[in-house]
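re: ur question from earlier - yeah i can do the single chain one, its not a big deal. heres the input i used so u can compare w yours
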Amino acid sequence: MTIERTESVRRVDPSTTSGEREALEQWLDFHRATLARKCEGLDDAQLRTLSAPPSDLNLLGLVRHMAEVERGWFRRTLAGEETQWIYSTDEDNDRDIHTTDEDTYEEAYATWQAEIDHARSVAADRGLDDLGDGKHRSGRPYNLRWIYLHMIEEYARHNGHADLIRERIDGVTGD
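and the output i got, formated as tokens:
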């Protein structure tokens, strides 16, 4: 199924004069929107197209992966919520990336956006130096600043992957 969009995904360029927190939030939102734009106009089969076999990386899997990453850092590490992974299982830790014909962009996009909304809400009343209430698997404490920076890095890296995958599917590059 192709997700019909009457309007392109809105992506706002970060301000060149903002303060630290605003800059971090703007850059994170910029990269979130970039991933959505990479998926725009493709049907589910195209979104499941593998990047370069034997790699299992695909655009639908990247969206699902980023939903997991948002959940891990904001729900589990920052907010200290006890929550299960969305897609990953004990049997397949990379189930977010390992998509099947039953997996849809409509579901993945809605799940991803819900995780982003929740991330914004748990970060809203915290300062950049505030440590997360949860435990990361590393056992180390993380402050909100570090989480924002890591999330920007995570999206930027995967947006590079997304650009290459999209080019392989239909030749669209950049932006």
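The domain at 20-170 is CATH 1.20.120.450 (Four Helix Bundle (Hemerythrin (Met), subunit A)). not sure if urs matches, ping me
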